[in-house]
Amino acid sequence: MSDALLTVKNLTVDFHTARGTVHAVRNVSWSVSRGETLAILGESGSGKSVSASAVMNLLDIPPAEIVSGEILYEGKDLLKVSPEEHRALNGKKIAMIFQDPLGHLNPVYSVGWQIIEMMTAHGRPKDLARKRALELIARVGIPEPEKAMKKYPHQFSGGQRQRLMIAMALMLKPDILIADEPTTALDVTIQAEVLALLKELQAETGMAMVLITHDLGVVAEIADRVVVMNKGVIVETGTPREVYHAPKHPYTQRLISAAPGKGEIKLLDETSPVLLRVEKLQKTYGNFDALKGVSFNLTRGQSLAVVGESGSGKSTLARTLLRLEDADSGHAYWKDKDLITIGQRELLTVRREIQMVFQDPTQSLNPRMSVYDLIAEGWDIHKLMPNKAERRKRVIELLEQVGLAAEHVDRYPHQFSGGQRQRIAIARALALEPELIICDEAVSALDVSIQAQVVALLDGLRQRLGISFIFIAHDLGVVRDFADTVIVMKSGEIVEMGPTEQIFDAPREPYTQRLLAANLDPDPDVQAERRAALTDA
Amino acid sequence: MAEVISGPQSTVADKGPSLLSMLWRDKLAFSSAIILLVIIVAALIGPTLLGDIATQQNLRGRNFPPFSLDRGWAFFLGGDSLGRSMLARLIVAAHSTILIALGTVAVALTIGATLGLVAGYAGKHVSQIIMRLADVIMSFPSLLIAVVVLYVLGPSIPNMILVLAITRIPIYLRTTRAEVLEVRERMFVQAAKVMGATHTRIILKHILPVVTPTLVTIATLDFAFVMLAESSLSFLGIGVQPPGITWGLMVSQGRPYLNTAWWLAFWPGLMIVLTALSLNLLSSWMRVALDPAQRWRLETKRKKNV
Amino acid sequence: MNLKPIFFGALMATTSIVPALAQANTDITVVLSEELDLVEPCMATRSNIGRVIMQNISETLTELDVRGDKGLTGRLAESWEDLGDGTWQFKLRQNVKFSDGSDFDANDVKHSFGRVFSDQITCESKRYFADTQLTLDVVDPHTINIKAEPAQPILPLLMSLVTIVPSETPVEFVREPIGTGPYAMTDWTAGQQIVLERRDDYWGELPAVTKATYVFRSEPAVRAAMVETGEADIAPQITELEATNPETDFTYPNSETVYLRIDQTVEPMGDIRVRKALNAAIDREAFIGTVLAEGTELATAMTPPTTLGWNPDLKPHAFDPEQAKAWLAEAEADGVNVKAPVEVIARTENFPHVAEVGEALVQMLNDVGFNASLRMVEVAEHEQYYSKPYPEGRPAQLVVAQHDNSRGDPVFSMYFKYHSQGTQSGVNDPKADELIEAATAATGEERAARWSELFAYVHDEIVADALLFHMVGHSRVGERLDFKPTIATNQQLQLSEIGFK
Amino acid sequence: MIKMIGQRAIASILSLLVLMVLVFFLSRLTGDPAVLFLPIDATEQMKEEFRRLHGLDLPIIQQFWHYIVDLTQLDFGDSLRKARPALDVVLEAYAWTLPLALITMSLVVVAAIVLGSLAAFNVGGFFDRLVSIISLIGASAPDFWIAIVAIVVFSIGLGWVPTSGVGTPWHWILPIAVLFIRPFGLVVQVVRGSMLSALSSLYVKTARAKGVKNTRLIFVHTLRNGMLPVITVIGDQAAAMLNGAVIVETIFGFPGIGKLMIDSILQRDFNVVLAAIMITALAIFVMNILIDIAYSVLDPRIRN
């Protein structure tokens, strides 16, 4: 790879923490050439971002320490240049965009100011910067660039913010663009658009791109080459096709097999009795109609998925059913009781029968309560199981049921990984022996391999305990693996509802079709076919 | 970015080292704890042990200079303007000083936090009423409260506490409310709601523990403030008065002697500063030590576990 | 309500006023302990006001000489004589002009008194005429007859307490006092300063000081420091702790007497042995040169030695703890509850080191077997305990109080403190009442003798209270001034007495 | 925004009324101004006259009614001691307190922000510890102690500045310096904490990736975010200062509102106390609105 623009060689970085030294990456080497897209694939904790942070001099030293290695750019070792020299390269020659552009854009300055600063920080005149900013804002597809310049980050949608970040990164026509999980927080349709934009821009400028992601689909869609990382080391390198079709390393194999959307589609048991009957549920926030008359039925043991993009009303649906919000009108009959109108006393009973698992277990578990307290809290509330010893036994049983161990009982949430925390949340939901569990994006925050495990766990519970699920998700792959019925929502309305098989194989509504088309497949060949199909059409 | 994986497999011990050994490791916090401990012990047993020495006057041997053992250890820090042992008086004064400061902070914290929890959790109207009430208290000068209370109820330690506490309530009230407004939107509060937790339970079990560290921090800062406020009231002649004895009063009584016998005001002033400093250092340590998610920072270095 | 001009005005003022240091060498700055609420002539007997205006702006008919021994001399009155029947005739000084240019005559005197006695204004000097009815009769522009009912033997002395204002002065507090004195007020910036400037048309000898600026600082250390740094020339009230420089610092009796007021109606204070024991328990000498300044004298009377009728034969009660214990034991044997709780009540900031004095007193009392405790109270509360009606259900109370009489005659003290009807009296003794009434009505030598007798009676016979100290004041006077503070400096500070070296 | 200010104004006027009623009745519990105004030997007749002249002999409800009626014409009554309109007395004192508070708070804000930010950037370092310890000691040392030591050292010993008074700008140096210490100690801690969390924000990473210089990173990118919590504390401190700095004013002979307030309270000059409290409350109310405006200027997210 003699024409490499940027080369990372044998990079080893340690993090010194109070708990000891952690090898963040060991002997990592990769390079990227002009016009090429390199994907660094890995799950959380794999060290996939560390080398890129080292390139940008974004590692905090200490606690980080660069033990060995070099980063070569234009014949210079970036690890040896002065901070001032490095600063001059940042943004100008090597630019970076991040996941979650809301957090990465300064909330108190207008986006125009921030984009212009990219050039003024490197000594370019302000009027020139302004002109270029207007051009680029228009180029990345933001309407009314003049007005947009004056607006603040919170006034844009997630997709728009990422476009603005891209515009900012491209201000000085960098040689290399590093994109750290650029589409992770975005809806599938927006993700597809942003990736397409990146590809176009790369074609225009010939820049090299380093894309850090956990998503096989993104790799399949955009990468020329991919390195797979696990626990700080590179386990596999190759083209996306090679890696996908013939993974050599066991970790890569596991990762690929865990990718959702490949399993057998479940069928609905038509004979089950109806448990929940939702009729014309309506909810308005100010001028915004979150729910415009939603109706559906749920039977015992059913796993009903509700899919849709952000703002579709799927979370509001869950919140109104749980009475976290009051619906404006409509009914939801749960065993002949209307959830929307029942009084506090009856509601208490229902609150035992319907449980919820939230998206982010880090936030939904009180950080100051031990696992035992968290799981046993429901019993305190409903005055069940007064016997301490019995309680403890049951907590351990529940932990084992969700794949944790008895020794975990007295620990605190922060001592667990994300997947384990979600298991605790599930154990907490199970503690009250509910008949319905509502999962609001319950697996979205988890790594693919963990996601698969949790979905399998939920499915097992459904089969063994006959619990019904309302499964709210935006990831169609997971939905396909878990649900037997799918509701597609858009702007507070049900667009389409039907058995999973029908929705995925023969979607009737154009919106469902678009949604499915935008969903990235981990198989590069499938993605290539779809792209070909799109260009044909 | 590699995270420090803190999964169970990497955690060696369940509970980690004891609080005490963690304290030992932070030398600053440890010395603070020792100083506070000494002060508390002095406050508890000082009056019974040294009450007589502290009041033993000697008009003809007044303002005895410090750092001399000619008159025994009791006069090592010098004698005051009535010839009493400074050391003994400092120790005895710790009692009322700590009592007033602790009482004030406890009363203000309890009332302020309770109102704050209600204001933050209850509806808009209740909240508004409570907040405006806080405004009224804030604008009500503490000096007037002091004069009213002392004139109507008479000077005594409980009344001093009352005076000082009233003026501190808004601080706790506003902080608590602000925190509650944020915490009550957190996911785990929603989770508790979904499980059917009552409002009381949510407030006490879920919101209060999260708000507590902030309150503790403010309380420790306030401790020093209260000691100084009490001193200022003494200075203005409406605080604790002789024969009562507090550090604040000692500072204010020693004030005329700053030129001639500096030690009269210096030692009690130093005690106030030392107490405040120790409390601050200890409280920032405690903030970390009592937070399960941060406690590891204070634990021993472990072998790497990735 | 527009704050803006005031605010900017203040800012301007701070940048434009020339430093106080740069002034003509016959201008002086006086630093006082508290700001004046009022600069009203009829309030001149209040010491903080009197210090500025008494005999500087406003003058009185007569004046008590405290520097020499001339006794009562004329100021605006040239002479006076007793016409009998309670009537005194005063001949007024001629060719005297007020600072507003008008002439001084008998009508001004009449108006001044009318103003003091008006019920539309609360004038302080009125209190000296408590039960006396005055009738003023203008004989001619420079002669006035004043008739007192009942007859007032010391009427000429009382004339030294009423300041004379022009007859045009309204019957309400004025902010720009007009007087006949050698100075006129030219500036009063509330909170900051009062400026007096010398009048060239003054009737008497022109004083040396051309301009006096009064500023106010409550902290004694700061006042002393200001003279030291040259920011001020006279600090009339500093504490003995600051008065360390013999070149500039003067110590002088300030006419204040500190005593313990005993309320004899509450057990155990009704018993004379207990009161004697109390007096014997106090080691008065021990205070002097320690918590109280050197120069402080032991008191045997309510009024300082310069007062008429002061009795030189009286000796302070000896400090004798053993005797005190013996007296207490004796009283106890007779069934007096000497262990009854006794509250020593003192007022914060009453005089320097009052708290220490209180603490030491309590210790001394307890050393001989009293059950005493100290209570420091704020001024309004002190007043409740000090003046009648005393609170119901009170325990025995010893009120630490300070009394000021620089007026030369005990009449301003004795009735209030020892007569059974006196507002601050703890005594109910028919003989004392009789002696007071007799002395008040007497004149000349007899008056002095009567007062002497009374002093001896209350001190030795009934041991009415525990008289403690005649206090001293301390002033710091800049080195360029030729001025020696006297007993009167507490009440008035005549600029005409100040010279330059 | 305007609507919000309007609501705040109404709420504040209500608070002001409650405050007035409380102060009016509570202050009258503290004794009789007549005995304090008149000498100790004054006759009962003189005291009665004084009470009558100032309407203090009327039933308290009637006194209150008169007060309210006068107040509607912005007449706060006369000072019992000074025989002048209470409002004049208070405004005069304010003319001193306001610049003192403004100058001191400005210095506190600037110094605390610069030193606090640098300490946060250098967290755990020598400078950080130095700032922390000094500010903590400063915040917990008795102020009258500091004031007198300052006079002894800087006026008497070194002769750099006048001891006290308000004549020239030089006179302001010591009072401001002494008044500065405690709020500085508090604010610098808050700035440090707030900047610490702001510096770990994600947008700082973006700025570094852009190649922004460190000083710009601290004082442009982070500071504006870090200021939000700081403003609340600054507001509290400024409010305290608007109540007057009793101790500093007393010692330095500074004719501000704090000294006026304590004197009036001790002398039971009710009208001045009431006027002072209401004007102060009004000033604090105006300041609170300014703080809200500052919030929305600093943070565009609050504007809608």
Automatic annotation (TrEMBL), chain A:
This protein's record includes keyword Methyltransferase: no
Protein name: ABC transporter ATP-binding protein
Transmembrane stretches, start-end: none
Origin species: Aquamicrobium zhengzhouense
Keywords: ATP-binding, Nucleotide-binding, Transport
Listed SUPFAM superfamilies: P-loop containing nucleoside triphosphate hydrolases (SSF52540)
An annotated Gene Ontology molecular function: ATP binding
Pfam families assigned: ABC_tran, oligo_HPY
Compartment(s) where it occurs, according to its Swiss-Prot or TrEMBL record: Cell inner membrane
Family, as annotated: Belongs to the ABC transporter superfamily.
Every ABC transporter domain range: 6-256, 276-516
Topology with respect to the bilayer: Peripheral membrane protein
Main location: membrane
Source organism superkingdom: Bacteria
Automatic annotation (TrEMBL), chain B:
Membrane topology category: Multi-pass membrane protein
Annotated localization: Cell membrane
Pfam families tied to this protein: BPD_transp_1
Keywords from the UniProt entry: Cell membrane, Membrane, Peptide transport, Protein transport, Transmembrane, Transmembrane helix, Transport
Main location: membrane
CDD domains documented for this protein: TM_PBP2
Gene3D superfamilies from the UniProt entry: MetI-like (1.10.3720.10)
Residues covered by the ABC transmembrane type-1 domain: 94-283
Transmembrane segments: 28-51, 98-121, 207-229, 261-282
Similarity comment: Belongs to the binding-protein-dependent transport system permease family.
Protein's recorded name: ABC transporter permease
Organism: Aquamicrobium zhengzhouense
Automatic annotation (TrEMBL), chain D:
Subcellular compartments: Cell membrane
Primary location class: membrane
Domain ABC transmembrane type-1: start-end pairs: 94-291
Alphabetical UniProt keywords: Cell membrane, Membrane, Transmembrane, Transmembrane helix, Transport
Pfam families attached to this UniProt entry: BPD_transp_1 (PF00528), BPD_transp_1_N (PF19300)
Gene3D superfamilies: MetI-like (1.10.3720.10)
Domain of life: Bacteria
Membrane topology: Multi-pass membrane protein
Family per record: Belongs to the binding-protein-dependent transport system permease family.
UniProt xrefs under PANTHER family: DIPEPTIDE TRANSPORT SYSTEM PERMEASE PROTEIN DPPB-RELATED
Name recorded for this polypeptide: ABC transporter permease
UniProt organism field: Aquamicrobium zhengzhouense
